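Our collaborator T.R. sent over the components below with a one-line note: 'Predict the complex.' Nothing else. No constraints on interfaces, no templates requested, no preferences about which chain binds where. So this is a plain run: every listed entity goes in together, and whatever single assembly comes back becomes the starting point for the next discussion.
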Amino acid sequence: MDAAPPLLEMRSITKEFPGVKALEDVNLLVHQGEIHAICGENGAGKSTLMKVLSGVYPYGSYHGSIVYQGAETRFSDIRSSERAGIVIIHQELALVPGMSITENIFLGNEPRRFGRIDWQAANRRARELMSMVGLRDDPDTLVKDIGVGKQQLVEIAKAFAKDVRLLILDEPTAALNETDSRHLLDLLRGFRERGITSIMISHKLNEIEAIADSITILRDGHTIETIDVRRSGADEDRIVRGMVGRELSSRFPEHRPEIGEVFFEVRDWTVRHPISTERLVCKGSSFTVRHGEIVGFAGLMGAGRTELAMSLFGRSYGVYLGGQVYKDGRPIELRSVAEAIGHGLAYVSEDRKAIGLNLLDDIKTSVVAAKLSKITRNGVLDKAAQYHQAETYRRSLRIKTPSVDEGVVKLSGGNQQKVVLAKWMFTDPDLLILDEPTRGIDVGAKYEIYGIIQQLAGQGKGVVVISSELPELIGLCDRIYTVAEGQVTGVTARRDADPETLMKKMTSTKRTPSR
Amino acid sequence: MRTFLTKSVVVGAATLLALTACGSERDASSDDPAEPEAGFAQDSLIGVALPAKTSENWVLAGDLFTNGLKEAGFQADVQYAGASTTVADQQSQINAMVTKGAKVIVIGATDAAQLATQVSQAKQSGATVIAYDRLITNTGDLDYYVAFDNFKVGELQGQALLDGMKEKKPNGPYTIELFSGSPDDNNSKVFFDGAMSILQPAIDSGDVVVGSKQTSIKQTATQGWEAENAQSRMDTLLNSAYTGSKAPDGVLSPNDNLARAIITSVEGAGKPVPVVTGQDSEVESVKSIMAGQQYSTINKDTRKLVAQTITMVKALQAGDEPEINDTDSYDNGEKVIPSYLLDPVIVTKENAAEAYADDPKLGPLTK
Amino acid sequence: MTYVKDLQRFLFGGGTSNARQFGMIFTLVAIILFFQIRTDGLLLTSGNLMALIQGYAYISILSIGMLMVIVAGHIDLSVGSVAAFTGIVVAKVMAEQDLPWPLGILLGLLVGAAIGAWQGFWVAYIGVPAFIVTLAGMLLFRGGNQYIGNADTIPVPEGFRQIGAGYLPEIGPNTGYNNPTLLLGLVICVAVVVRELRARRVRQQMEGATPAPLWIAGVRIAVLVALVVYVTLRYAGGRVGTSFPISGIILLALAVAYSFYTRNTAGGRYIYAVGGNSRAAELSGVKLRRVNFMVMMNMSVLAALAGMIYVARSSASGPQDGLSWELDAIAAVFIGGAAVSGGLGTISGAIVGGLVMAVLSNGLQLIGTGSDMVQIIKGLFLLAAVALDVYNKNQGRFSILGTLSRPFQRGSGSPDPAYEPPKAYTAK
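Returned assembly:
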C-alpha cells in the first residue's frame, strides 16, 4: 500500500474568511481504494476542506496545493472537479423532489442524441446505476415519493453517472435510520472492493470504527492527527479526545434520577395521516411520564414517533381521531399549540432549521418567542426583560456567542439547539418532548445537551426523548417506549435495555403490555 | 434629572441656533393671497402641464408651446403626465411649477375635476391659471379657458354624418352607431350633446335608426379615449346587432383615433366601411379620408389654439386683460370662466386641400 | 469599517436590522443635497416641502401596510383598486345622501375593513396565495370603481378635502410662524429626548451591554433635535394659511403607532415570526391564520384611508385614482430594506424608502425632467438599491449585512450547498 502513490494529497491548506481562519495548514492524505473518515466537531473545518477540494472555493481563494492522481490540480468550480472524478454528496440532498429518479440522476448531465435528450438511454443507464447502489424502484418514480434513505442512494447513483473516482459523503447517515445506515455502510464497503475511494465526514464514532481505513481528525481548522486504522486500530477515546481536545470520561454526564409520580398520561391516542384517509399514523398509543423522568421513544424511520409527538402538541400533525390526555389526573384538551403551551407542554422539533427556529431572528428574540406574554407589560414588550432572560440562558446553557444580539444563523448546530432548548425552557414547561435533540451535533455539544436534559429532569419536569440512536436512549433514559407502525409495542426499563431487545420490539408490531 | 436638564439646555441652544439660521418665508405684510400683479418680467417662467402623450395632438401642442414661449422670450417648462399615473403626475408637476415660481400655468387637464387643489395653490402663489382645451371644474381659482368651441364640433360631426350617408344612399332610413369620448373628459359630453342636437331630430323622425339602441352617453363612452376600447365595443356591436348581411350606414366617432379603430373593426368583420366622423386631423386619418375610408374629421388647428394661448400669456405679461369672446357658456361648477373660443372647421375629401393648405405636414397629403 | 459601524450603532440606534436603512438615510441626504443645489434651493422651500408631503402621504400610508404584508410573506396588489373603490363609494354617498364628511371617512374605513376581511378570509382561511387573491381584488375593485362611478369624476365637499389638502390652522399670536406647527415640533423634540434617555436607561439595565458614551448620546440628540427644529421652521414658516399638511400629520401618527406596534408588541413580533418561518411560528403557539387575516385586513383599511386622502387632495374621486399605487408602495418597502421572502423590514425603513422615491421624483420634476425620464430613473434606482444590497451580502462586505441574509433552506426548500454561515463564533 505504501508503494502506491496516494490518490489525493492536500498540502498545508489555509482558507480565510473575512475575520476568520477556517482552515490553517491542513494536510490530508488519501490512498487509492480506501475509506477515509474525516471527523471533527461542527465548525472544525471539515466542510470547508471538502469545498476547497471540490472547487466550490476555487483555486486562488485558498493557500496550499492539491495533488490529485499525481498531478497538481487547480479546480475553478465544481464542474472542473467533477470532470476529474471527484463528486461530493452533501448532507442536505440536492435532488429535485418533483422529478423522477432518472431525471435527477442525469440532471445537468443528460445523455443527448442529436441535441435531444435520449430518455431511452437515460432510463437504461439509470437502471444500471440503481442496481449498483441496490435501488430497485421504478426509475420513473418521483423522488419525493421515496424515503430519505433511498434518496441518498439516488444521490450516490447520480455520482456514479458522472464516473466517480473519489466519492465524498458529508454526514451520509445523519438523516437515516439504523437499517438504512447499515445498508449504506455495506454499500461503501462494496465500493471499496471495486477500488472506489471514499471520503466520509461523520459524527458517528461507531460507524467510523466499523468502516474507516484511515481517520483524519480536525479541530479548529487544524489537522490533529491521521490514524491508520489497519495498523493501529481505531480507539474511540482517542478520536473523541482529538476532536474535543479534552478527555471525555463518559459520553453521558453523571445523573441520579429522582422519579416521582405519574403526572402525564396519554390513552389510546389515534391520529390519521393528513392526506391519506386510510392511513393511521398513531393507532391507540398510550404512555405515561413521571415527574423527574426521562422517557425515551425508540422506533424506525416512519414508525410514527414524530407524528405522535406533534399530534399531541396542539394537533400540529395529522387529523385527530381519538384518545385522551391526562395531566395530574385530570383530562385536558390540546386543540391548539397555544393550548398545549398553556398546559405546560413543549416540543423541540427534530428539524430545528425548518420548523424549530426563525433563522432571521437574533438569539434574544428566539429565546422568548414561544411565550411573549412573559415579557409583556401592559401590552408592550419589555426589551430589557427580554435581554435579561436571554442573557440568563446564554450563561446557564453556555451558548457560545459574543452577544445575544447575534443572529441564530451564525451559531453552530449545537448552539442553535441550545437556543431552541432555551426557547422552550423559557415557557416553564412541565413536559418537554425533544425530537432527535442531538441530530447533527458534535460530541462535545451532545454531552452538554444531555446534561441540560438531566438537569430539567432533576427539576421534576418530565422529559420525552425521541431518538434514532439507540445508545443515546439507553444511556440517557429511565424508561424506553418502542414504537412500530404507529403502535406502542412495549416499554423497557433502563436496567433491561440493550440494543437487541429494543430492536426486536421496534420491528415487531405485536403489542406487549405497555404499563 | 441632572442629565435631563443638560439635555434641555442643549435643545434650547440648538433651537435658537436654528432659528437664526433659517428665517421664515412669510411676508408679514401680505396676509391675503397675492393678487396677480399687473404684468411680470419678460423672461418669467411659464408652466405648461399636458396629459400623457397618447395623441399626436398633445405632442404637437407641447412642441408648439416650447418653441412659441421661447420665441416670445419666456422660459418654458412643458410637462406631460406619465402614461400610467396621469392625474397624480400632473398634480405634482403643477406643484413643481408653483415651486419654481411660474407666472402663468397652462393646464391641459388629464382629469378635469381632480386639479382643484393644485389650481388653488397656483393661484395663491400669484400665478394665473389658464385651462387649455379642457375645462377644469370645481374651482373658483381658474382664470381663463381657451379652447375650440366644442359644442360646435359636435354639431359639425352630426351634420357631416347625415351629409355623408345621404351622399352614399339618397334615401333613409339610415342605421347608425354612436360613440362618445372618455367620461372623465369634460369635453366628451359637449361633443356628444352637440352631435345629438343635430341627430336627435332625425332619430325622432325615424329617418335615422341606432342599430344597437345604445343612445346614452354612458352606453357609448370610450374609457380613457383608448382606441382598443372603441374597437372592442364596435366588435361587440357588430356581433350582436349586425348579424348576417346587416351593416351600419354611419358611425358617429368623437375623434380620429377612435374613428380608425372603428373602421378597423368593421373591416375585420368583413362589412362595408360606413360613414365615420372624426376630429383632430391626425395624419393617419387625413390619409384615410383621402383614400375614401374615413368620411370626415375636424380641423381644430392646434397651431391656432397654442398661438391664441401664447397671445393671452403675452397680454398677461404686459399687464393687460387678455382678449376673451365668451363669458357665459362655461360654468365649471364654481363660477363662469371667461373663455376664448376658436371655431372648428369640418374637413371631408372635398375641402381637404383647401383646409390644410397652410399645414406643412397635412398639406402634402391632400395632393 | 468599524468606524462606520460605530457611527451607525451610536447614531442610528444600533441593532443589526437597520443596516440598509442606514444606507438609505445617507442616500436620502445625498439626494436632497444634490437637488437642493441643482434647483438653487427650490427643493427645501416651504411650499415645495408641503407639496412633497401632500403628494406622497398616501403612498407612504400604503407602504406602512404593505411593509407588514411583505414581512408576513405576502404581497398586496389590490391596494390601488381598493383605494379607488373606497374613494368613489365615499364620494358618491356623500354627494347623493348628503352624508356629513366625518361619517364619510368612517364609512370609507368600514368599506376598507370589509374588503380586507374578504381578502383576508381567502388568504388566511382558505389558503389561496395573497398574490392571486389580491390580483383578483385588483380587477374586482377597479371594476367596482367604474361600475359605481360610471367612470365619472365625483367631487367631494370642502370639509372632506381637509384630510388631503388641508393644513394646521392659524391660531394664537402672530409669531411670524404657524403656531400649531411650532407646538408639534416642540412635542416631537421632547419625545425625541425622552425616548433617547429611556432607551439609554434600558440599555444600562442590560448587564453586559455597553451603552454608548454620554457625549455620543448628546450628539445624537442634538442632530435629531436640530433636524426636527429645521423641518418645523420650514413648515411653520410657509405662506400664511399653509403649514404642516393634515395628511402629513395622519402619516406621522400612523408611522409612530405602527412602528411601535411592530417593534414593541407581541402582535407585531408575530408578523415577523410568520414571515421568517411560518411553521416554526405555528409550533411556537402563533395563530397563523389570525396573523395573516389581520395583516391583509389592515392593509385594505390603510388603502381605504390612502384612497380617501388622495380623493381629498384631488377634491374629487376619479376613475384613474389608485393606478399603479401598489407598485410605488411595494418599491418603497423594498428600497427601505424589506426582504422579498418576508420576515425582514421596518416601518421606518418603508417610510424612508418612500421619502427617497418622493424626493427623487420631486427633484427631477423641479429640474424639468419629463415624466418618462422620471419613471426610467426611478426604475433604475429601485434596481440599483436592491442589487447593491444583494451584492454586498454576497461579497460579505459588511458583515453586519450578513445577518440579513436568508439561509436558503426555508421550510423544506432546496438547500444550497454553497451556503455556509460564517463560522466566526463556532470555531472558538
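Summary for T.R.: Chain A has a mean pLDDT of 86.
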